[in-house]
Amino acid sequence: EQEMANMTYACALLLFRHGSFLESVCDEAAARIYEFKAQGVSNLVYAIGVLRFGHIPLLKAACQHSCGELRAWSEQGIANTVYALGLLGFKHTGFFEAVAASMHDRGLECFNAQHLSNTLYGFARLSCAPEGLPPAICDHMPIRLAEFKPQELSNSVYALALLRENHRDLLTALCDHLPHKLVLFSEQNLSNIVYALGLLEFQHEACLQALVQHLPGRLCEFKAQGLANTLHGLGLLRFQNQDLLQSLCVHVTGRIAEF
Questions:
Q1: Residues 6+ positions from 247 with CB-CB distance below 8 Å
Q2: Residues 133, 123: contact at Cβ < 8 Å?
């Protein structure tokens, strides 16, 4: 069983999706899930999540089997599995409740920045989360923001927006943290942050002013969706800056065929 998990995980790392191979592996794994060790289950689910191969029998079997087995799982295995289930749009209440209980019992300090970000993002993609878990993560994150990479910060803010988790203390800490880091963020990170702040209707003057100064020189990097999300976010915030709006509209006008 370890070989099946390893091969599928390797395909995910290579972003290689072969339908017949994945179907045969998932069929066999679903029937033999009780033979798999914890890492094998989490790696297999993570792999099919990354490859967007939603094999429902395997997902059901993996979640059902794992509900009582999470003590043997690593923090990375838990976070990666929630992330993968989010990518696949697969909900399993029993497994999610077991995840919340396990994270509470271990303590959130045992989970690194990527684990916390991926967990929030996975639940956000599903528009659901175990009661009390997102607020607990939000309470915990401010003192650890320096550990988060740009992608993790961006995903976390975006996840809060999708979950409609308007946690003022965390959002304030994030916005205080962002202005001096913007050069490290990708165009997608930046557009997601503006869009997320818009969805949450969270205004932070210093952060918005830093974005106003930074964004015009980066707009050439933005894809059409990023430009649209940035303008949409600014609109939701009712944040009017003539220079930035002018730059955005000029870029959109010149690339209108991409929309």
A1: 215, 216, 219
A2: yes
Q: Which of 173, 103, 177 is nearest to 139 (CA)?
A: 173
Q: CB atoms < 10 A from the CB of 254, how many?
A: 10
CB contact at 8 A, 62 and 31: no
CA–CA dist 177, 175 (Å, integer): 5
Q: What are the tens digits of pLDDT across the range 75-107?
A: 999 999 999 999 999 999 999 999 999 999 999
Provide the 3-class DSSP secondary structure of residue 201: coil
pLDDT tens digits, residue range 132-190? 999 999 999 999 999 999 999 999 999 999 999 999 999 999 999 999 899 999 999 99
Q: Are the CB atoms for 7 and 41 separated by under 8 Å?
A: no
Question: 103-108: long-range contacts at Cβ-Cβ below 8 A with a sequence spacing of 24 or more?
Answer: 103/78, 103/133, 103/136, 104/136, 106/75, 108/136, 108/137, 108/140
Q: Give the tokens for residue 127.
A: 């528009």
Q: Residue 125: what are its φ and ψ, rounded to 5°?
A: -60, -25
Q: Which residue matches tokens 């972003």?
A: 15
d(C-alpha 177, C-alpha 17), whole Å:
38
Joined together, the tokens standing for residue 29 give 């794994």
Token digits of residue 176: 């205080």
Give the DSSP letter string of 153-166: HHHHHHHHHHTT--
